[in-house]
């Protein structure tokens, strides 16, 4: 038996024991909705079901969420008891879908669009014994020609990933309301939206779904455009102890390109992880659907804090640079200057 199989079995056993323990203590189920997206053809809806204390905000207030922890230590986001294989119902428009959560309590379903027009809509997620939760859904107009896909960590939010100890301090120890934006990146997005006013924005990150509320609040507070967040689960998989962040980004990028075949994309990332390499591969595979690549370049000090060397982990390949416009700079202000020179 592989190590990853052992860890998965331990995780499953531990969670089952945790569910039994908190149930005996009177904990109750609570559902949380995340931001989904869709088109005139189909909709994708996200959420999660957790066990919570009966006097917690999520248990007594229909407008609260089980993982909305306000301005507390970051580690509080990661201490959860998920309810796997838990029945739920999603209602949106005239559609009603019944399904079960996955092993980690997540909701991720695709349904046919029930005639919703482009814009923002609200789905309702219901479970037995708990208040309903709202899940926002962004429907993109089929006539929209340009979309934006942005990384989060060290692109718009100072994180210093994947340097484990630094990232752990920023994500687990610091208070969630002290996270700092990358200089000028909100202005860069505003500049992009000036050129493409209706361009939908998708945030793609290797970060855990546990941080969704904190990240959503962060983007609102610092002037970043509203948009769905495509996060991941850090737990073990059938092939490794941790999910591959790089593979997660590749899959989600390809999904968006497939879901919106009529659109061309502006890709925004940083060179502290593998964004340039991922972007290069996407450009090679879909050269006609990538409009521009923008990379925030970390300083040598940031590279050391991020991954231990002064050099980037990867660079955009020369052939990718030749295929689509490529801009780079240490902050959003420099990216705006380069954008204006195109």
Automatic annotation (TrEMBL):
Residues 146-296 form the Phosphatidate phosphatase APP1 catalytic domain. It comes from Corynebacterium ammoniagenes DSM 20306. Pfam families: APP1_cat. Signal peptide: none annotated. This is Phosphatidate phosphatase APP1 catalytic domain-containing protein. InterPro entries: APP1_cat, Mg2+_PAP. It comes from the Bacteria.
């Amino acid at each position: 038996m592989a190590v990853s199989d052992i860890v998965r079995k331990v995780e499953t056993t531990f969670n089952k024991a945790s569910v039994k323990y908190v149930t005996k203590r009177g904990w109750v189920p609570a559902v949380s909705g995340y931001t989904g997206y869709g088109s005139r053809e189909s909709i994708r809806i996200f959420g999660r079901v957790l066990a919570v204390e009966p006097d917690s905000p999520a248990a007594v207030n229909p407008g609260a969420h089980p993982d909305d922890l306000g301005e507390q230590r970051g580690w509080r986001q990661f201490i959860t008891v998920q309810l796997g294989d838990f029945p739920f119902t999603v209602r949106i428009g005239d559609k009603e879908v019944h399904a079960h959560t996955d092993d980690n309590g997540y909701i991720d379903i695709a349904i046919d669009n029930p005639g919703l027009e482009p814009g923002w809509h609200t789905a309702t997620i219901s479970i037995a014994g708990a208040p309903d939760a709202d899940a926002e859904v962004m429907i993109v107009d089929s006539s929209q020609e340009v979309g934006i896909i942005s990384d989060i960590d060290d692109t718009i939010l100072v994180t210093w990933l994947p340097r484990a100890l630094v990232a752990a301090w920023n994500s687990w120890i610091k208070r969630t309301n002290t996270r700092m934006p990358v200089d000028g990146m909100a202005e860069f997005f505003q500049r992009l939206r000036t050129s493409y006013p209706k361009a939908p924005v998708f945030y793609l990150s290797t970060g855990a779904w546990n941080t969704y509320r904190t990240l959503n609040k962060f983007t609102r507070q610092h002037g970043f455009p509203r948009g769905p967040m495509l996060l991941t689960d850090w737990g073990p998989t059938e092939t490794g102890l941790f999910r591959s962040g790089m593979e997660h980004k590749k899959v989600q990028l390809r999904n968006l390109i497939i879901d919106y075949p009529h659109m061309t994309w502006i890709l925004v990332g940083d060179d502290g992880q593998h964004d340039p390499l991922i972007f290069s591969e996407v450009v090679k595979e879909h050269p006609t659907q990538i409009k521009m690549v923008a990379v925030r370049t970390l300083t040598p000090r940031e590279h050391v804090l991020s991954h231990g060397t002064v050099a980037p982990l990867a660079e955009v390949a020369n052939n990718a640079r030749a295929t689509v416009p490529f801009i780079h700079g240490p902050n959003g202000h420099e990216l705006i200057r380069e954008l204006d020179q195109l």
